[in-house]
Amino acid sequence: MVKAVFPGSFDPPTYGHLNIIERARSLFDEVLVVVAVNLQKTGTFSPEERVGHLRRLVGQWPEVSVHVCDTLIVDFARKHGCSVLLRGVRSVQDFSYEFELSVMNKGLDPAIETVFMPTDPRFFVLRSSAIKELASFGGNLTGMVPPAVAEELLLRLHPDKTT
Ligand code: ADP
Asked: Cis peptide before 146, with omega less than 30 degrees from 0?
């Protein structure tokens, strides 16, 4: 029984995140998607709103659950019996950051392995920050985030567009 944690800010969840979660279902018995709370950053959506979006998006997959975490991810993983930390990698830049993070996490808990999953080429340019910038100009978010997420993003960041 291998359980994996997939942590991130998910502000907002994108098709890139969903693709990683969907592919992880065939590798692991359980996938725990974790909205990691960053006390230094207030997001566009609150952690509870992000959990709500994610739960609606993964609701059809019984082996996937969604959580919030305001502690170290390795502590969350240990507490929930997860031996894998799953991270998506879009680029060489992502990889160098993720590599350092994985070494740090390995130092914190040697029993937990980081697994990198390369992005699907369809989604390699999807980045939550860029999507939010596009939304603030009322740009078309089709193919980047699911329609319900796009609608709420535009309402939040470009209210004129939706009224
Ligand atoms: P973002 O960089 O979009 O703000 P998060 O901090 O929410 O992303 O990322 C959570 C995890 O999902 C990270 O491992 C990140 O590398 C991965 N990820 C984000 N976007 C993509 C994508 N388009 N394809 C593959 N993995 C992704």
From this structure: no
